């Protein structure tokens, strides 16, 4: 009987979802990027942060509704309310969505969300948003916006 | 790749899925306890400078060079700090034992039952030796390619590799 194939278990770094999102944000200088630590377990945080249809409208005051229109594994198509008010055309997004990770883009905007457990009771979250057309002003404006969104998310998760 | 270079965040996400585990493994074998920081820094540099890469086919070599450089830099800095603090010369590996590389270092088969000890054995090598082992035995580069990646002469690769393999096999032996 021949010896079984022997392989080497090689040490590997742990690159968290938050670290990955940080690197993607570095590729897009116009994006506003923020990180927060939330005192709640990952499952609790992602049940709100990652729930596009029911969770996101609770912490993002500019999103009244999101509807998933198509799903193929991790690939989603979405619609959300217009940024121009009740009678504007909906925004259409394509997204990659999995536990702890969501990246989406529409014609005019880009959004990223990631969450990584720190321990059983706390979670690191990261969020970016940006407009392809607003440039540096967009970065400043979205920076203020997502700061507030993450604070609201923290309050919802820690409640 | 062109879409990622153009800034499409979905293409960047897919590229991240491809690059992150690979860079994590390169940094894991070289930087050991500093591997998480080295991999993060390497990925930040790769994605930040992605649009400057003229030839998409060169991505792998370019990203590997960044990952090895960051891993060696982090490992050397940790080693210097330990030296200043009066600590030993052995890296305290915090890297996670991850996927199976399928490598046979120095032609020696490794018993999977003791495989986690590979971290302790690697920790006794210098960061430059670990970099050579990673490039030749994990990545499968030729001596010429490894020399080009590390910016050293081919003779230096040969001698470092010989010493690294010898040290690895000797330290692996019971």
List key phrases describing it:
heterodimer; A: 159 residues; alpha+beta; 4 helices; 8 strands; disordered N terminus; B: 174 residues; mainly alpha
Largest beta-sheet details of chain A? 7 strands, antiparallel
**Radius of gyration of chain B, CA atoms, in whole angstroms:** 17 Å
> How does the overall form of chain A come out from the CA principal axes?
globular
> How many individual β-strands of chain B?
1
**Mean pLDDT reading of chain B:** 81
Describe this structure in words.
The complex is a heterodimer of chains A (159) and B (174). With 159 residues, chain A is an alpha+beta fold. Chain A is 29% helix and 36% strand. Chain A contains four helices and eight strands, in the order E-H-E-H-H-E-E-E-E-E-E-H. Chain B contains eight helices and one strand. Chain B has helices at 2-5, 9-31, 35-48, 59-84, 118-122, 127-138, 143-150, 154-172; one strand spanning 96-100. Strand 1 of chain A pairs antiparallel with strand 1 of chain B, so a sheet runs across the interface.
SSE topology sketch:
The complex is a heterodimer of chains A (159) and B (174).
Chain A: E1 9-12, H1 17-26, E2 32-38, H2 42-49, H3 56-59, E3 66-72, E4 75-80, E5 91-98, E6 101-105, E7 109-119, E8 122-131, H4 135-158
Antiparallel strand pairs in A: 2-8, 3-4, 4-5, 5-6, 6-7, 7-8
Helix pairs in contact in A: 2-4
Chain B: H1 2-5, H2 9-31, H3 35-48, H4 59-84, E1 96-100, H5 118-122, H6 127-138, H7 143-150, H8 154-172
Task: Please give a quick description of this structure.
The complex is a heterodimer of chains A (159) and B (174). Chain A is α+β, with helices and mostly antiparallel strands.
């Amino acid at each position: 009987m021949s010896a079984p194939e022997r392989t080497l278990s090689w040490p590997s770094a742990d690159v968290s979802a938050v670290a990955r999102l940080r690197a993607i944000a570095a590729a897009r200088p116009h994006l506003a990027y923020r990180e927060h630590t939330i005192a709640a377990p990952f499952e609790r945080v992602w049940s709100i942060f990652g729930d596009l249809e029911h969770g996101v409208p609770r912490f993002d005051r500019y999103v009244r509704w999101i509807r998933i229109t198509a799903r193929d594994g991790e690939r989603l198509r979405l619609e959300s309310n217009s940024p121009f008010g009740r009678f504007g055309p909906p925004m259409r997004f394509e997204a990659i969505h999995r536990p702890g990770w969501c990246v989406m883009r529409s014609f005019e905007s880009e959004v990223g969300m990631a969450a990584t457990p720190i321990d059983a009771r706390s979670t690191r979250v990261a969020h970016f948003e940006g407009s392809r057309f607003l440039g540096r002003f967009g970065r400043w404006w979205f920076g203020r916006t997502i700061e507030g969104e993450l604070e609201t998310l923290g309050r919802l998760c820690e409640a | 790749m062109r879409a990622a270079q153009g800034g499409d965040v979905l293409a960047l996400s897919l590229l991240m899925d491809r690059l992150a585990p690979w860079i994590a493994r390169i940094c894991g074998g070289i930087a050991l306890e500093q591997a998480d920081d080295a991999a993060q820094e390497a990925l930040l540099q790769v994605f930040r400078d992605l649009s400057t890469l003229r030839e998409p086919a060169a991505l792998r070599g370019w990203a590997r060079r960044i990952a090895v450089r960051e891993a060696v830099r982090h490992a050397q800095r940790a080693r210097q700090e330990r030296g200043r603090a009066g600590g030993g010369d052995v890296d305290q590996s915090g890297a996670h034992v991850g996927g199976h590389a399928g490598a046979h270092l120095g032609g020696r088969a490794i018993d999977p039952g003791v495989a986690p000890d590979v971290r302790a054995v690697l920790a006794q090598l210098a960061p430059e030796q670990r970099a050579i082992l990673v490039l030749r035995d994990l990545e499968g580069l030729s001596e010429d390619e490894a020399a080009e990646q590390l910016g050293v002469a081919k003779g230096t690769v040969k001698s470092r590799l010989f010493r690294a393999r010898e040290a690895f096999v000797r330290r692996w032996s019971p």
